[in-house]
Amino acid sequence: MKKIGIIVGSLxxxxxxxxxxxxxxxxxxxxxxxxxxxxxxxxPLYNADIDVGDGPEAVRLYREAIRGADGLLIVSPEYNxxxxxxxxxxxxxxxxxxxxxxxxxKPVGIVGATPGPKGTILSQQQIRQTLEATQAWVLxxxxxxxxxxxxxxxxxxxRLTDETTLKYLKRYVQxxxxxIDQSRGLQ
Length: 187
Hints:
Layout: E1 2-8, H1 16-23, E2 33-37, H2 57-68, E3 71-75, H3 85-94, E4 107-113, H4 121-133, E5 137-138, E6 144-146, E7 153-154, E8 159-160, H5 163-184
Parallel strand pairs: 1-2, 1-3, 3-4, 4-5, 4-6
Antiparallel strand pairs: 7-8
Protein name: NADPH-dependent FMN reductase
Family: Belongs to the azoreductase type 2 family.
Keywords: Oxidoreductase
């Protein structure tokens, strides 16, 4: 069974992206996978002065969770046409120490939802750029942008409910699971 770490790039309790992330484990997939949320809420702002040894306790636990996952799914909004600062901070913490960073050769998929009409195109480009700089293996040739998300979720249940989007999300996650298998051969 594959262990997938889910990182949500928003700290907001009722975040649409958190609703999308909460839906992922409920998708009925052909392959079995276990999902674990990896919180970024307690990470301090990145500061090389405190990035010594295992770093602060919250950072150590965060890096350990990433290392323990077979792959990651990042579900993130777009803020001001870019990557949310809290997510960039989290990726920076996972990118050090340089030679043994938790993100090195980690298979990663990226999904994003926004109330706007263009999805999270710009944010995902920046997330992908950051991940590639860390030597993570970002799922190639696949993108999952969810636009006008408020029409596609049940906010009371905190879940994605739009059938078409659910179908695409399921296919994306299945592709990520296959990517994890394929990337093992790249090492």
